[in-house]
């Protein structure tokens, strides 16, 4: 633009000069110089305006680049939560019947997380039971661990859920009862202390491995080893795990338990949920006869309306003992659940266990479940 304006000025001067005879007749030389200076000042003002416009157009881009390059603050969050789950009902077992207040695993917990680098985070989790059935006692730890996550996976140390529960049993654990899932509960593991765990997740696969290290109980090396993998695609979940656990007697290792577990679960579009979990046990004992056992849990849930849901279950357990020592059983349960609010559930449950060599057991319970949670981000 500047070159163009300069050329325009020169053309004007040339034009005036080429017509010098005519101009001389009408203008003096001083007046001609004055008009040339006016034209030059106008050209200069146009050049300055053009430069100012260029700066104004570039200014927002400079500010935008500076805003993007500014480092983001750490993403930290903390949450406090709880769930109180009292029950009241009728129990019938061994020619005895009673009415009693129970507890369906009430708990209070705290979680915190800090995303301190892109793809890296630290977390902690503490959770403790509240036993409403026994004076409301508080303090038995359920979860107590710290973990660090990275693009290569997540490592946690403390007391936590093992892979066998997280990948298999959790998908049939849908009932408002402290012993759910009922077949798994007879021999399965729920929380493991003194544990180191590793987890790696992709879009559809989850790999988990864990070991329990307790120098005061069992042997001084591996007390427990558990690994498994889960597959998730849409509404489908498949999981399998392997567990090897030391068996002790009077503080001495007398063999080990080997457990293979698997689960399949699917949520249908119309709301129906179906899941089945199976465990195969092999009990190897030093100097004693080995034995085999299994557990089976089949569960279903179907929404009757926006607030009511029906849950059904069938379970079977065998421990491999002879008739004198056996606690083999199978059974079923049915639960009607009313959820008038996202944080409140009320339920009515009937449970029956048919023991092979012992007295049968049944119960009819009503229960409440009130959940609360509060989180902060900073």
| Stretches with pLDDT under 50, minimum 5 residues | 4-26, 59-71
Q: How many β-strand runs?
A: 18
What topology, given as strand order, has the largest sheet? Answer: 1-4-5-6-7-8-9-10-11-12-13-14-15-16-17-18
Helical proportion, percent range? 10-25%
| Radius of gyration (Å) | 38 Å
Tally of individual helices: 5
How far is the N terminus from the C terminus?
52 Å
H and E string: HHHEEEEEEEHHEEEEEEEEEEE
**What kind of assembly state do the chains in view correspond to?**
single chain
Helix/strand/pairing category: alpha+beta
Major sheet summary line: 16 strands, antiparallel, barrel
Strand content: over 45%
Shape: elongated
Mean pLDDT: 86
What does the secondary structure layout of this molecule look like, with pairings?
Blueprint (H helix, E strand, L loop, with lengths): L1 H17 L1 H7 L2 H41 L5 E10 L1 E8 L2 E8 L2 E12 L2 E12 L5 E14 L2 E8 L2 H5 L14 H4 L6 E10 L3 E8 L11 E10 L2 E14 L2 E16 L5 E13 L5 E13 L4 E11 L10 E13 L2 E12 L5 E17 L1
Antiparallel strand pairs: 1-4, 1-18, 2-3, 2-18, 4-5, 5-6, 6-7, 7-8, 8-9, 9-10, 10-11, 11-12, 12-13, 13-14, 14-15, 15-16, 16-17, 17-18
Helix pairs in contact: 1-3
